[in-house]
Write a structure and sequence with these properties.
Blueprint lengths: L8 H4 L21 H12 L8 H29 L5 H24 L10 H11 L9
Helix pairs in contact: 2-3, 3-4
Length: 141
Amino acid sequence: MTKRGRKSSASLSVISNNGIEATERPKPPIEITDEQACDWIRITNSKPASWWDEGNCSALIQHVRHLSRARRIAQAIEKTEVSEDFDITEYRALLKDEETQTRAILSGATKMRLLQQATYTDKAAGTASRNAGKSTRPWSD
């Protein structure tokens, strides 16, 4: 039978019989492209290795796919904007597609708690915002 209550700091500072267990970040799955794999690595490296589990890895697959699609749509928008035969209908459709991808990206990032707002409390965000403008301005010298 185990001891009830909190573990003592002494028992927490002792390495168990299993030794130190390292948690690895998940590797990019084979079903995503190289571009998406770069996003995968960048995102998984932005959080501790223990952040990732099977549940949010499937969401991350979709997230990196949406990032890739958003880039393609942005490239198509840029081409359309400089095209000599500008088609407003095509342009509006591309902008709508871009908005759809943006919403999917933000939704996925929010649900996986990747955004800064997910790590700040309201009070901490307010403090950071107030302190942001208090640095010495170069033109004030």
